[in-house]
Design a protein that fits this description.
Layout (H helix, E strand, L loop, with lengths): L7 H10 L6 E2 L21 E3 L4 H14 L3 E4 L16 E4 L6 E5 L4 E4 L5 H10 L2 E2 L11 H7 L6 H4 L6 E7 L5 E5 L11 H5 L8 E8 L1 E2 L3 E9 L2 H12 L7 E6 H11 L10 E9 L2 H17 L6 E3 L2 H12 L1 H7 L4 E4 L8 H15 L2 E7 L4 E7 L5 H21 L15 H7 L2 H14 L14
InterPro entries: FAD-bd_oxidored_4_C, FAD-bd_PCMH, FAD-bd_PCMH-like_sf, FAD-bd_PCMH_sub2, FAD-linked_Oxase-like_C, FAD-linked_OxidoTrans_Type4, Oxid_FAD_bind_N, Vanillyl_alc_oxidase_C-sub2
Organism: Agrilactobacillus yilanensis
Keywords: FAD, Flavoprotein, Oxidoreductase
């Protein structure tokens, strides 16, 4: 596909749309706009546009469409797969200034937001009103638009589901500049094909989200966690299906090993509450009273002990709760700090196959000669595995990284799993999606892209596009 080379005339045309030089960056563009948190995929845009309204997004898209200029949408740039990297240069649409909370609807238990609102801002706002937006990805400085675009999950997915389950309505600007409203505040919807759900998880390839209506829940009044040490990781993970099949489903079921905990301790400068084991499950329960939560977790504590747990530690004070979850929240940054560079896979497999998948990682590490660390969401089968550069040369690291990823993704597919559970495919993981997904599925995705974006100007070379 050939795109128009961006010129000064195009810059002047964009200034006519957005009459503010501070929001149309051309001569001096910060380096960070060329990459996301992955870092290894980098490509600078020709221009950065920072709209504040849907009308501005629409007018920029109309201009780009008429002139065949590539456009890439970007929020906070916290992604890990290069999804917001402008591979064809062109226009980078930074929606971070569209950051207003527009409405709280108490009657329908919804809130309406622009795409640049941060996840932490949604958390603070809903807490002030006694409400709760359950999706809980680890990166709280991510924008809600980015979360919707990747269908982000997080640790609460076991009980509450993922971002898709809490989006009622979207306003979307198509590549042509047309503005659509998809879904609504209604609880049920059987009115034709669900185009809203096509946009969710499409990683900015089908349209640019300019407004979202989010479903809220009444906030639980109390949260208690259980830290459960096991002699081995296999015993810990073998217990997870029993927990999920019980009548007392936790918010979260996480697994972790001692080496990752030690990294977090060093990173935070604080001790983890327990060191008696090499493997742990971390369970979290919520409810309206301590008594209600105790009734939920006591049978699960007994079940864990019957399954070989060494102990069940209850974090029934805020101090204990904070110490555990701050460590869990620091895992990614702690692993980053333990090496010179890294990349990640966030494969997802059926819960029944988590043990086999986790057991495969040391085999890959030994075979390829690449240090690897793993933790993740045992309750939903989403495993975060980090491949560490250490003292390898950049060339050798990329070679071994590709070999290791191929082995891991093919093993996940063999076990009935998929390439990504929550981070998306973006640019960096395209090849692995193509290798492991049925050709008919890919053809259907490409056909949907062609319908939404016949000129292929919106976020080219991402997800399923060569």
């Amino acid at each position: 596909m050939s795109y128009k080379a961006f010129t000064n005339d195009d810059y002047q045309a964009l200034l006519n749309i957005i009459d503010d030089k501070d929001r149309v960056l051309y001569d001096e563009i910060q380096e960070e706009y060329g990459h996301d948190e992955l870092g290894s995929v980098s490509c600078p845009p020709d221009v950065v546009v920072r709209p504040k309204t849907t009308a501005e997004v629409s007018d920029v898209m109309k201009y780009a469409y008429d002139n065949n200029i590539a456009v890439t949408a970007r929020g906070a740039g916290t992604g890990l797969v290069g999804a917001c990297v402008p591979i064809e240069h062109g226009i980078l649409m930074d929606v971070s200034l569209m950051n207003q909370i527009l409405e709280l609807d108490d009657d329908n238990l919804t809130m309406t937001v622009q795409p640049g609102v941060l996840l932490m801002e949604i958390g603070d706002f809903t807490e002030e009103h006694g409400l709760f937006f359950p999706p809980d990805p680890g990166e709280k400085s991510a924008t809600i638009g980015g979360n919707i675009s990747t269908n982000a999950g997080g640790m609460r997915a076991v009980k509450y589901g993922v971002t898709r389950d809490f989006v009622r309505e979207l306003e979307v600007v198509l590549p042509s500049g047309k503005v659509l409203t998809l879904g609504g505040k209604v609880v049920k919807n059987s009115s034709g094909l669900d185009l809203k759900d096509l946009i969710i998880g499409s990683e900015g390839t089908l349209g640019i989200i300019t407004k979202a209506v989010l479903k809220l829940l009444p906030a639980p009044k109390k949260v208690i966690s259980l830290l459960v040490p096991f002699p081995t990781l296999r015993q810990a993970i073998d217990t997870v299906p029993k927990i999920v099949a019980s009548e007392s489903v936790p918010i979260a079921v996480e697994f972790m090993e001692k080496d990752v905990i030690l990294d977090a301790e060093e990173y935070l400068g604080k001790k983890f509450p327990d060191h008696q084991s090499d493997a742990y499950l971390l369970l979290r329960y919520d409810g309206n009273s301590t008594e209600e939560i105790e009734a939920e977790y006591e049978p699960i504590a007994d079940l864990c002990l019957e399954s070989g747990a060494l102990d069940v530690l209850i974090s029934d004070t805020q101090e204990r709760e904070d110490s555990i979850w701050k460590a869990r929240g620091a895992f990614l940054e702690a692993i980053k700090g333990s090496t010179t560079d890294m990349d990640e896979v966030d494969t997802v497999v059926p819960r029944s196959q988590v043990n086999e998948m986790v057991a495969y990682f040391p085999e890959v590490s030994k075979k390829i000669g690449l240090r690897m660390k793993c933790f993740g969401h045992a309750g939903d089968g989403n495993l975060h595995t980090y491949m560490l550069k250490d003292d390898l040369s950049s060339e050798e690291f990329q070679l071994r990284l590709g070999q290791a990823m191929t082995l891991v993704y093919h093993k996940a597919a063999e076990l009935g799993g998929l390439v990504s559970g929550e981070h998306g495919i973006g640019y960096a993981k395209r090849a692995y999606l193509e290798e492991t997904m049925d050709d008919v599925n890919l053809e259907l995705m490409q056909g949907i892209k062609q319908t939404f974006d016949p000129k292929n100007i919106l976020n080219p070379h991402k997800v399923f596009q060569s």
